[in-house]
Structure formats: structure tokens, C-alpha cells
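Objective 1b of the project was to move from sequence-level analysis to a structural picture of ligand recognition. The entry below was assembled by the postdoctoral researcher (A.K.) and checked by the PI before modelling. It contains the amino acid sequence of the target and the SMILES of the bound compound, magnesium ion.
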Amino acid sequence: MRNSIGTSETSMNGTSLDGALLKVENLRIAFRTDEGQIQAVDGVDLTAQTGRTLGIVGESGSGKSVSTHAIMRLLPGTAVIHPDSSIQFRRKDGTVVEITQLAPTGREMRAIRGGEIAMIFQEPMATFSPVYTIGNHIMEAILAHEEVSKQEARERAIHLLDRVGIANPSRRVDQYPFELSGGMRQRAMIAVALSANPSLLIADEPTTALDVTIQAQILALMRELQEEMGMAILFITHDLGVISQIAHDVVVMYLGQIMERGTVREVIKEAKHPYTQNLLQAIPRLESLGQRLHAIGGRIPSPMERPPGCPFHTRCPQAMPGVCDKAFPETTHFSPTHEVNCFLYEGS
Amino acid sequence: MIRFIVQRFLGMLVTMFFVSVMVFIIMELPPGDYAERYAFRKFSGTGVTVTEADVNNIRVKLGLDRPAYERYFSWIWGIVTKGDFGPAFAFETSVNNVIGQRLWLTLAILFSTLIVTYLVSIPIGIYAAVHRHSIADYSLTVLSYLGLALPNFLLALILLYISVTVLDSSVGGLFSQEFEGAPWSWAKFVDLLKHLIVPAVVLAWSATAFQLQTVRATMLDELNKLSVTAARARGIPEWKVLLKYPARLAINPVVSTVSFDANRIFSELPIVALVLGLPELGELLIKSYIDLDMFVAGAILLMLTFMIVFMNFLSDIALAFLDPRIKLEGG
Ligand SMILES: Nc1ncnc2c1ncn2[C@@H]1O[C@H](COP(=O)(O)OP(=O)(O)OP(=O)(O)O)[C@@H](O)[C@H]1O
Ligand SMILES: [Mg+2]
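Corresponding predicted holo structure:
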């Protein structure tokens, strides 16, 4: 993965995407801060396929949000995307754009945002502005991307609310976010995201703040909508338990790097990386569902002092001194889809 | 919304009632009354001995002999039904004649000050927050601290000096000589605006500096909200994101303090008016107090406090428009 070289040319025929919708290669993102540079993401490759869900798992600070914000060019001005990084995206009209080359607030990027790549967030309450109605948010998204009348946008908004399972949509459309329950807000947020028919949906821990029953309902809704609309989903979570319910493919991230990737079966049933195995042991049991994971021993190092070599070696029960702290391991393939970066398997 | 407005309006009327009682009590507070002052004025130095009976006669003539509550109600009755604020003893005419012109000019100063304050502080505060840590932001911060530190009578003197020496225009008063007694015309209005600028800038100075910092701080808070990122993620143009989401909430603290600003302007106005030679109400208020000309003092106090109560009402309504949570939770 680190040795895979990204291309930053824009190709108009889409061959470099191999049929994928989105291809992120060698993504490296640093933040300039008063205390120095923080390398938040260090050589990440991701691929999203139409109709499939890619789960991105990892503890706090692994760079899940930063990576996906880069795809939408929503990073703050202090973030620097490395010039060798590449984010290729196939637009609805078939052309492939190199997103890293677009101006973050330019017309093309704005058309992609919301129109072709939509995002839902962890906290629906904070995602909505408290001073506008639910309908206002949805109509705004529709009107930003399509030439329709206000009346038509409003009807579409009501229809969308109905589609995501909100009862009484023609009344809800005029209500404020604080008048809805948590689960309903989450559904409304999905309605906003779907308003312009995106081909890629990025969901950043959309169910973490919800209780288990509602979480299951939302996951079911997302699966259903995916089947119906055929979009690709990037699903971010801390929780491998949630991943097993929604994802087709999984990448496991730690401190800005990818530790393991594979199909959901490979990663859950045949986890190879000690980090993944630890995460699996930490899947919340019934009595602790909804809580954040803390079960892996040791402290997550601060991004200012990233350990050299494999960043997990400071907490890894199988760490090999003199090996793991020297260099980042090469990628080992267990199947065409299953890859691990760990010295335990190197050369096997 | 209508229910909310009616509620606030009734609340305002109740407040005004209590305010008017308080004003009346304040009118009654100074020892003695105008009858004594009148007798003293009229007969001092003439060698005539004024008896208690003489003073009482004057009292009856002026209607000051009746009990306090009766005088309160006839005073309020006159104001509410006829807009008559009672007699101005020392001027031997009605309060309305004495105050009239000055009231409008005071209001003109008040509103031009508020307009200058908000026109400057809101856009600049928003700009500074959006361009945080830029040179413009730092210089505005320094400038606004200067604004807070500089006493405004000093600023009035400086501006007075500059406009007289450099610009060669008259700043004293509210009208140039040729318009002083002239009937209203467009030219006279323009002349008034020209004269209003200096007092408005002086009075707006510190409030602008203060509100600028408030707007900047709230705007920074709001800019970091997830809802702003979410709006960008919907593909909304940046200027629209900024105006629709953070800016709308960033002006809330400003709107909610409009009546404080009005209050502060009224308290600072007499000093500035003294320096700039403006015919406003504050000076008249002090004079009427010295003369025990209580209907004049009462009318001025009532006007100024009613104005503040009314601004408070307006800011409540505006806040409810800006932030629907207020009316839905409160009503
Ligand atoms: N604006 C920023 N300035 C500096 N560092 C940042 C900024 N945003 C994120 N980071 C750093 O980048 C790293 C990755 O953050 P990111 O938010 O992507 O983590 P995450 O995997 O999404 O974690 P979580 O599960 O807590 O959401 C963290 O170490 C964080 O401190
Ligand atoms: Mg995150």
C-alpha cells in the first residue's frame, strides 16, 4: 500500500478506475499546527464500487474522518494533501475527475458535493441548523443541484421523508430539528443526503449515537436504499459488530495507515492482523452496546508522536522488538482481496 | 408567531405602566415643589413677604394640591388620551412645546448611532471571523481595543477639531445656520444628516468596538458547528453557507442587546451633546430638575424609558424571527 504509487493525472476514459466508482491512492494528509506537522493520514488506498459498502474501521484518531473529508474537499485550510495523492471519481456523466486537482470551493467540486457524493454524520442534531425546518434543509439540497421550482422541491422533500420511513411527512417537513426524535432526525438526515441522488454516500459513524434498536432500523434502511438506488457507501465506524451487519468489504485503519483489508467475511472470520483481532475481541457485548471501544490495552499514541515502523507495535501483544519498530511492513496477500500489513506474515 | 407578538406586546404595556409609576415617584422625590420655587422666583428681591397661604394659592392654581395618585392619573390620562404631557411651568407653555423638537432630534441621534454601530460592527465582525488570523483580523482587533479604551468626549473633541480645522465645516448643533428655523426640505434633511454623522460616530465608537468583538466571537463559534460543514457537504456556495447558517446566529447577541445600547447612548448623550452643542433632551432634563419643573422632567424620563422598553420589545420579536426555538419554547 505505501509502495503503490498514485497517479495524479486526470483520465477521461475511466480505464484507470477499473470499473470502480472511486479510487483513492496513496492518500497522505498533514495538518500544520502551532506544535508542528501532524501526519493524520499516511498512504491510504481505498476503492468504492457501485452497489457495495466499504466499511472503514479503527479507533479514534485513525484518520477515518479526515480521509473521507478529503474526498469531499471539506478539510480546513490547515490541512495539506500530499501532491502524490490521488482521488479519482467517476462522475454521473461517465467522466473521471481527479478530485485533488479541483478547487475546494469551485463550481465542479460543489456540483459533486451533495449532488454526487453525499455525507451523513454522527450527530444529526448538530448536522441540522436549529433555526431552519427539516424541509428547508432538504429543499436547499435539491435546489442546489437541480433546476426545479420551490413547490416541486417541497413535494420531493415530503416524498423523501416518506421514503426514509418518517410518518406524517407533510407535517414533519415544516418542523424544526428539535421537534423530532433522535432516530427520526437520523432518517431525516439520510433524506437530505439522498435528495440529489448521489452515487456515493459517505456515512461517518451514523449510528454511534443511537440505541441498539434504532441503530438496527437505520442500518436496515440504508441497506434497503442501497439496493433500490444502487449507490456505493463508505461506512465509518468504531464497531466491527456494526460492520458485519452492513459492509461488503472492510479496511482496518490505525493512526492513518491501513492494517488489514478484505471482504467482510475475511476480516471478521479470518482476521490476521493483531490489531483487527484485538478489535474483534472488543466488539461490544449486549450489556455495553453503544459505548466506545476501549478494550485494547495501552494508550493510543498522540498523533504528534507516531511510533516509527508499524504504528501499532507499542500496544501489540505480538510485537517483535527490533523488527516492528524499524519499518512499516510490506503487504501480504492471503487472497486476491485479503491483504495484511504485518511482519508476522511477511515472507510466508 | 402572532400569539407570541401579542404576548410580548401586553408584557410591554405592563412594563410601561410600572415604569410610569416609577417615573412619577422620581418626579415627586425632590424636596419642595414648583409652587415654592415659583413664589420664591416671583417675589424674591421685591420685599414682599410670602406667606404659606400665598404658596398654597399658587399650588391650587397649578393643581399641585391634589393627592399624589390623583395627579398621577390625570397626568397619565392626558398623555394617553390627548398626548398632552402637562404644563412646563418654567417655560410658561406646555411640555409638548418645550420637548417636541428636541425629542425628534434625540431620536434621530439614537437611531443614527444604532445604525452606524450595526452597519460597521456586524459585517466587519463576520469578515474578521471568516478571515481569522489574517492581518485584517489582527488590525481590526487592535483597532477595536483602541475603540474601547478611548473616552468618547475626547473623541468628540478630536473629531470636532478635525472637522473645523481640516474640513472647515461646522459640527456644532444639528443644523447649519441657514436651516436653523427653516421649514423641512430635502436640503435641510441632508444638512441634518451631515450634522448627525459626528455625534453618531462618537456615540457609536465604543459600542461598535464591543459589538464587533461579540459578533466575531459568536461567528467563530458558529463557523465550527457541524451544521456548517454539513451545508458545505450539500454543495451550497460558500457565501450562502456563511450568510444562511453562522451569520444569522452570530447577530443574535447583537439583536438581544439593542435596548442596552439605547440605554448606554442615552446616558452618554448629555456629555457628547455638551461638547458638540446639540439640543437634545438630557441637558433639558437636568435643567428641569434644577427648576423643579417636574412635568418636563417626567415627560423626558418617560420618553427615554419607554423608548428603551419599546426597543426591548422589538428585539424580542426580531430574536424570535432569527431563532424559532425562542417562540416555540417560550409560547
Ligand atoms: N483540524 C485539525 N487540525 C489538526 N489535527 C487534526 C485536525 N483534524 C483532525 N486532526 C487529527 O487527525 C487525526 C485523525 O483524525 P480523524 O478525525 O480522521 O480520526 P477518526 O478516525 O475519524 O477518529 P474518530 O473515531 O474519533 O472520529 C487525529 O489525530 C486528529 O488529531
Ligand atoms: Mg471521525
